[in-house]
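User: Last request for today: this protein with heme C, please.
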Amino acid sequence: MKKVFLAASISVFVAGVALAHSGATGIVKERMMAMKEIAAATKSIAKLDWANVDTARVKLKRSALVLNKHASEMGELFPEGSIQGPSEAIPAIWERPEEFQKIANLLETASAQLAQMSDDASSKSEIQPVFLQIAGTCKGCHQEFRQKK
Ligand code: HEC
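Assistant: Here's the final one, the structure of the complex with heme C:
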């Protein structure tokens, strides 16, 4: 009896996770989409094929600009108290707004630098220091301001 109950509650839990994002609305949904684009752009930079430099530069610029655009909008994407529904954002964002904004600014600056480098970069190692800075902002911000559900 106990086992059956446990199995039932696990399947409810799994369904809940699967539905989580489709339950997002408004600004929460908007920023989840923005974060997904951020993630896709970051992945695309990590996977650039530098054997084909021209294509790599075009792709680098495009992805860097996606990161830059969303980084510059970070403030608007997180209006105070917007943690409703499936949001993984936590109130610390509005308790320590300078720290949150500082990380967003770092992403904005580093991605602008990367966009600029895309004019003449020719290898992964060339962009790696800036890329690592960018990856550091994801990790840093998520550690402080996001609670995975
Ligand atoms: C300034 C803070 C900040 C930065 C920088 C940041 N994130 Fe996030 N990210 C968040 C917060 C907060 C959430 C949770 C949003 C929510 O659920 O409402 C999140 C959520 C996400 C999600 C989950 C989206 C979803 O559908 O639930 C992904 C993926 C993600 N971020 C990727 C990245 C990547 C990749 C980077 C770095 C290039 C990055 N983020 C940089 C704060 C940040």
